[in-house]
Amino acid sequence: MSFCIAHRGASFWEPENTLASIKAAVKLGASHVEVDVRKGGGRLLTFHDATVDRTTDGRGPLSKLSLQEVKSLYLGVGQQIPTLEEALEAMKGKVNPIVEIKEPGTEGEILRTVEESGLLESTVFASFHHHALLNLKRLNPQASTGIIFRGELLTVVEAARKAEASWILPDRRHVTAEMISKAKSEGLKVGVWVVNGRAEAERLRSLGVDAVASDRPEILTGKPLHRPLRAYIAGPIQGLEGKQEYREILYRLLRECGFEPLDPWLREQAYYRGSTVSVDEAYKLVRRDLLDLQYCELMVAYMPRLSAGVAVEVYHAKSKGKTVYLVSPAGDLSPWLLAHVDKVFKTVEELEEFLKEGPSTFFP
Question: Would 210 be classed as within a structural domain?
Fold first, then answer.
């Protein structure tokens, strides 16, 4: 049976490289969790990109931020960027770490951190920077390492031997039966990344790979989802700051129907009821909404009148493959809006009847 590596944790369901994604991977039955490691704020952090733009509400290079600034960044559904020490502590006794070295020159500090955590024997150090792995092996020959690569290396075994690695970690798009057979005949282990389809995972397992990395560990383990489905509540605010009672109604209804409701109004009302929001604050508000929405399976949008903000959220939700239900008494909804929702309800009561009696069709 192949190992199940949760890629950046269970990163389909929770923000990548966070404590939540690690905990979800454990609940979903992963045997290993892969995290990416970079320096920021003078500390080793579990974070993938060189900049914070893609996955947080901030902007700019991670390396330029103080630790306080790093910890103030929002990654969605309440998550922040962990230090490597925090991530390893979350894994200890529960799951084995795969630590990817993103920046050559940090391998010595990463090695010491893993050694001090007591997890050296269960950790695999991986990197696209094969010379960093060779340096790490020279610092501690007992460390287990794996070379990551894209494309088809003509000399996979030789590349692994040169780095003194015991694992090869090819991109799934370029792995071949011949590559797997050759590597295993030479005593190397093979882990393939990133596989998010059950059929592809089973095909690779049948070829004899030792590990499969996935954003969705449940497709490999068969475990049920680790949490209730999340439902994002959207609705117009500006000009209606004192008329947000519908949010409480939707919140109660969704919870009664087994969802975990997420309402951005709970954190944003102070901004809308206060003074003018600056450009930087507005950027953070919007980014936090979109990051939260990314980790919800359902959007329920209430639109008593046309709202550009809600329309943008609806379009974004559909672009991310979410199910969108729209509650609106309006009779002249734009075709563009209707094309991006799955079902329209005239009233909350109609939505309630559907949720309580209709089938759940939004599970990804």
Answer: yes
Q: Are residues 166 and 309 in the same domain?
A: no
Structural domain harbouring 352: 230-357
Sequence-ordered strand ranges (E) for the chain: 3-7, 32-40, 43-46, 96-101, 124-127, 144-149, 167-170, 189-192, 211-214, 230-234, 260-262, 298-302, 323-327, 343-345
Q: Kindly tell me if the per-residue pLDDT of 364 is higher than 60.
A: no
- Residue 363 covered by a domain: no
**Element housing 147 (H / E):** strand 144-149
pLDDT band (50, 70, 90) for residue 144: very high
pTM of the prediction?
A: 0.95
pLDDT digits (tens, 9 = 90+) for 31-47: 999 999 999 999 999 99
Token digits for 20? 């939540």
Into how many domains does the chain fold? 2
CA distance 71 to 83: 9
Place of tokens 């700051």: 241
Q: In the chain, count H helices and then E strands.
A: 15, 14
pLDDT of residue 271: 79
3-state helix, strand, coil in the chain (%, to 5): 40, 20, 40
Q: Encoding tokens for residue 228? A: 């209730």
326 beta partners: 301, 344
The answer to whether 208 and 184 have CB atoms below 8 angstroms apart is yes
On the 0-12 / 13-18 / 19+ scale of CB atoms within 10 A, 130 is buried
Cα 274 to Cα 155: distance, rounded to the nearest angstrom: 63
Q: In which band, very low, low, confident or very high, does the pLDDT at 154 lie, cut at 50, 70 and 90?
A: low
Q: 214 and 236 in one domain? A: no
* Mean pLDDT, residues 111-138 taken together: 98
Question: How far apart, in whole angstroms, are the C-alpha atoms of residue 171 and residue 150?
Answer: 5
Separation of alpha carbons 170 and 194, rounded Å: 9
